[in-house]
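Data card: per-record layout.
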Amino acid sequence: MKRHFRDYIPLLAVAGIILVIDQWTKYLVRTRIPYSEVWAPWNWLLPFARVVHWQNTGAAFGMFQGMNLVFMILAIIVSGAIIYYFPFVPKEDWLIRLALGIQLGGALGNLIDRIQYGAVTDFISVGSFAVFNVADASISVGVVLLVLGMWLREKRLEREKKAGAVSSPPDSNAPPEHSDGG
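The structure for this 182-residue chain is written out next.
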């Protein structure tokens, strides 16, 4: 049982860090900025980046509003899949393991908001891009890292396969090669 729990320490550590940062920043926004109000430390920054207190009952980019329950169920399924799959990812695939931890932290961060407040608190507003939060950014970064990690894994496996084919000893079960003298 201890060994099984130890397998999850990296996942839980990364997810925990993301979760704490996400919930702390959302708490600051909810307690210090009135709903729909905008804040920026300098006025010149406003056209480019600002903090705005916003609520989202849909998905990323404000799509599928009012589907909070669907996204709660989806977050539970995704979190369960990550927790189930994580121990099967080899330790040398550290980028994939990191990506799963980041995604788990993001999924749980938004799930907590949906359960506790009925909507996700969004607050990061950059240019004319949709308003998002640390959990959203973590999920997006996690997806990019997952794809990159899987690509790097495939490249590594291809190299290992080529190296194995070049340096592998002859098969002892294979019949000896015969020369026909010609």
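Known properties of this structure: The chain has a mean pLDDT of 89. The two ends are 65 Å apart (CA to CA).

See the next section for split statistics.
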